Structures are given as structure tokens and as C-alpha cells.
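pinging the channel bc i need a second pair of eyes. not urgent but kinda urgent?? the chain im working w is below, pasted from the shared doc
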Amino acid sequence: MSVCQYRIFARMSTEKETLQRRSQPVPGGQQAPPAPPAQPPSGFTPNPQGANPNGHLPPPLHGANLPSQPQNLPQGGYQQQPQYIYPQVPQYVLPQNPSLSQQPPTGYIPYNLNHPVMFCPTPAPKKSILEAYLLLIVLGLFGGHHFYLRRPVWGILYFFSFGLLGAGWLIDIIRLPVLVSRCNNDASQQNPNLAKKKHLDDAYVLWFPGGFLGLHHFYLNNIGLGVLYLFTFGLFGVGWLIDACLMPYHVKKANSNIPDCIEKSTAATCILAVSPAGLLGAHHYYLNRIGFGLLYTFTFGIFGVGYIVDWCRFPILLKRYNKSKEIGHTSHKHLDDAYLLWFPLGFLGFHHFYLNRPVWGLLYMFTFGLLGIGWLIDLCRMWKLVENCNKEIDERVHLTRNNRSVANPNYIQGQYYGNMPTTTVGGHVPVSYGQFGPCPPGYSNPNPGIYPTQQNGEMTKTIGYGSVPGMNEQPPPYEAASIPTKGH
């Protein structure tokens, strides 16, 4: 018997005898002297039923027999309190074989049951290059090596496309060691983000020959371009050729965390503008230029002139769109768009319609550009027409904001100064005689004397040109006339 077993049994025996003595009352109100600890028997178990490895007995189980009233009360002593009765611990006898007495029984647990157990995931087994090559040679056309390398989507694609018409199978003969190494690294790191990472070699494998159907765009999460390539056979082959040079950019963008809903892609704009889809205004639709898109659709890229010009100016269009998303929607007109409409549709006044001059547009339409003379003069004065149009747009925007500020005191270009002090007139509803708010920079004050100006860090009211004296002063309260008395 080991020392630990002896100590556990001695503690259990002592606690058991103590409980038994407490449950028996002593006449005269005196307690019995403690008995010496009992010697352990020849055989016992170190872990009796219901005891933890430290040797302590558990509390009574729910539903145990608990005495509601004391059984016996002494004649002249105290009233005994009810005691918990622990369940009887059965005694176990070890086998007589001395070789087995040194070993703990089968039910012995040498660990603390309350200790948290941590389960470490078993790492996936590593893949072998030899086995991968064996599957590639035998079942490679049906994607057997991809299933083996935990690439089920690629396996299904190879199964139904006969190894991408054999081209993907030939390329995999060279790049198979890379695929095996990548599979083992992903399994060892156990990072779920690695499974979503896009790779350049996979994109090029899908580009040839599946790029005509947009497979590489579907792989890179460019669903819109993938569908477009699917129905236009890779934008008639032009977009497919451009993607051969722009593939690293596509892969880098797919792996980045930049949201695509804010900025448009340079590569997508280039493909749509250069491909034959640009004749139908695909790049204009992509940049939310619906008006120019419809015009290109019905005029075949304004008879091909606008289509060729857009090859050079699509970066400007893209930059202009992204900037408008940052600062908000803008309706300013641009000189390049005006000149594009001037030739060759200027004889019908399209540039005047674009610059919000519908009367001049109708006049040019019915006079064929004022017999061509007005069309030639507009070539020199186009920049001035665009400047005047943008100035009118700005004035209209500021007037709209001023009208909103009058209707809503809280709306003054993001600032709020509150209403002017009000005066109660005759006990009626207070009336406001003015509105605080800054005047837009570069514009005259529409209501002089009401809007404040900032001097020395304080908002002060000024009287400018056109103001009426006393306009800034509150009218005196109304005073009722005195009622004449009888006799006057």
C-alpha cells in the first residue's frame, strides 16, 4: 500500500467516525471524547464511490434522507440540531495478488475533474508529391489531383470540362509541386482566410482558354464582368487579350480589402472603352453616365468618333467619377464633353442641349447650325459657354440652399446659429423677425442686415447695401390704448 493511499483512507475513516459520534447524543449534555483514528484494513480502494481524488466526500445528494426532527433528546442537555447523514461508502477489497496491489484500479482518475480540458485540433495530414503526380497522370483529366489537394471546385470544373480541354491538365504538370506545397502550408497554418486568397497562376489557367467565357472573372469575384464576357465571348476577344496584361492587377484587387462600391476599376473601364462594347457606350453605363450611354447606343459611339476619343480620355472620366463620389454628386458641365457633342452633332444643336440652352438647341436643329455659321463660331466660344453654364448651376445650388435655410432654421450648410430673439406681441405667439446664418462665400447677401458677419471671433449683424434703417431692431411691443372713462 502506498503512502498516498494510506493517507486518503485514514482521512476518510476519521471523518466517518466523527459523523457517527455526532449523530449519537450523550446523556447529560456532554460530548464523548474523540476516539483515536482507526487503522486501515488490509484492503481498500483509494477512490471510493462519491469521493474526489483529494479524499473529500461530496455533499449529500439531492433527495437524501435528512431528518426533519432530532431522534432523541437528552433529559438535561441541549436540543440536538439535525445533522446531515452522508451515504454509506462501500468498502472495496483489493485482489490478493501483490503485483496488482501497487497499481491503481481501473476507475481511478489521477486528475482533477474540475480542470478545464483543452482539445487541440488534429492537423491535417500532409500531401505527397508522388501521390499527386500519380493521380495527375491517371485521373488528371477528371480533376483527381485537385480532389486530392482539397480543391473540390477545381476538381468539379476539370471533371465537366475534361481538364479545361486538356490545357489545364498540361499546365498542372509543371505547377503541381506549387499546388502541393500550398496545400500543406494552408493545412499547417489553419487560417480560413488563406482559403479565400486568389492566386495568379490559377487566374491564368482559367484565362486560357476559359477566359472567353469569363471564368477568370468569376474566380476573382468580378461577377458583372464575368456575365458580360459570357454573353459577348470575352467582349469579342478584345477584353480577353487585355486581361492577359491586367491579370496581376485583377488578382491584387481581389485580395485587397478595398470595397468596390466606392471606386470604379481602371481595368474594367479600360476593357469596356477599348472593346467593341464601347461602341454601345458600355463604359459610360459603367460610370453612371446614362445620357452618354444612350447616345452611344443609338449613334454607335457618335459614329465612331466618340468611341476613338474615349480610348484616350477614359482615365479622365474615371477620375471624374471617383471624385464626384467623394465630394457628392455634381452637375457641372465639362469642356471635353461639349466638344465631343459639337462634332459631328453640333449642326443639330446637341452641345446647346447639353449646356442647358434648349432654345438655342432647337434653333440649331431647324436651321442646321444657323447654316453652319453658328456651328463654326461655337468652336471658338465653347469654353465661355461652359463657364457660364457652370456659374448658373452654382448660383442655382446656392439659392436652393438659402431657400432651405429660410424654411428650416437648422439647415445652413451644416451650421446652426438659432433664430433671432423673438418678441411676444400682446400675449400672442412669438414672432421671429430674422434668421441667423452665414452668407455663402463669393456671393452677395440676399437679405442685408439680417445675416451676421464674423468680427473678432463674434457673430455681429451688419447693415449692408440695400438695407433699411432700423431693420435689425425689434419692433416695440404692442400697447393697448387706454379706455376712456365715463364723462370724457
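so Residues 373-407 form the longest helix (35 residues). and The chain has a mean pLDDT of 74. — does that match what u expected or am i reading it wrong
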